[in-house]
Specification:
single chain; mainly beta; seven-stranded mixed β-sheet; four-stranded antiparallel β-sheet; 51% strand; globular
Length: 119
């Protein structure tokens, strides 16, 4: 199993930017697919973006054009660059890892980092 630790959350005004980081340990990072999910109060956890071991990326419609996921295998870290943030992006953001496919049923999760976007 993989241990994941997120960082980089915080409070930002609408239109601003944040970069989230997720450091992984416990398994060869280059062999696991990575993703970001988020959960707002009273809502279900939802997919934001993912990146495969071949660096193929997928985005939720809400993230396309504003968010960029990337990975640095040398640093065992995945990033989520978030630009043009909106109040509706406010949520706890979770990093996930999986050997097969990243989903809400993925095998490894971080503790989450809070992102708050003020209007």
């Amino acid at each position: 199993q993989v241990q994941l630790v997120e960082s980089g959350g915080g409070l930002v005004q609408a239109g601003g930017s944040l970069r989230l980081s997720c450091a992984a340990s416990g398994r060869a990072f280059s062999t696991i697919h990575m993703g970001w999910f988020r959960q707002a109060p009273g809502k279900e956890r939802e997919f934001v973006a993912s990146i495969t071991i071949w660096s193929y990326t997928t985005y939720a419609d809400s993230a396309k054009g504003r968010f960029t996921i990337s990975r640095d295998n040398a640093k065992n870290t995945v990033y989520l660059q978030m630009n043009s943030l909106k109040p509706e992006d406010t949520a706890v953001y979770y990093c996930a890892a999986d050997r097969v496919v990243v989903s809400t049923r993925s095998e490894s999760w971080g503790q989450g980092t809070q992102v708050t976007v003020s209007s």
